[in-house]
């Protein structure tokens, strides 16, 4: 039973922002090889349904949708679940699972701490 993973970003009008989500997807795939697609809710493609089609064509019958979102806003609480309900109707032979959003995680806190340290170093370098 083949499993696929969709890393779902918000999407942006800025191509550079969308590329960062694609970079994260590639990093995840490097850590854990398998069937991966990147999708976006808005502004660019592929959208969620298009990514499902690609994974299904690759043989996936179980798809884990992993939202790359920090907070439990309306997209996490309402929009994504609603869209997945539609996908279940469109693809009744596919099992959909939704991973938790990133949220308040110790790993995120560690990254924020690192960014603060980097900012302090930049400030110190400018002062010299």
Automatic annotation (TrEMBL):
A Pfam family per the record: CbiX
InterPro entries: CbiX-like, Sirohydro_Cobaltochel/CbiX
Keyword field: Lyase, Metal-binding
Coiled-coil stretches noted in the UniProt entry, renumbered to this chain: none
Cell inner membrane among keywords: no
Key word Lyase present: yes
Entry's Gene Ontology molecular function annotations: lyase activity; metal ion binding
Name of the protein described by the UniProt record: Cobalamin (Vitamin B12) biosynthesis CbiX
CDD domains: CbiX_SirB_N (cd03416)
């Amino acid at each position: 039973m083949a499993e696929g993973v969709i890393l779902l970003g918000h999407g942006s009008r800025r191509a550079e922002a969308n590329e960062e989500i694609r970079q994260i997807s590639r990093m995840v795939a490097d850590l854990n090889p398998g069937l991966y697609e990147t999708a976006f809710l808005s502004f660019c493609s592929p959208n969620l349904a298009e990514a499902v089609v690609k994974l299904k064509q690759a043989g996936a019958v179980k798809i884990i949708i992993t939202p790359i979102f920090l907070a439990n806003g309306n997209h996490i609480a309402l929009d994504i679940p609603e869209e997945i309900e539609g996908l279940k109707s469109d693809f009744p032979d596919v099992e959909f699972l939704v991973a938790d959003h990133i949220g308040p995680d110790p790993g995120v806190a560690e990254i924020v701490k690192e960014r603060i340290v980097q900012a302090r170093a930049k400030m110190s370098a400018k002062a010299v």
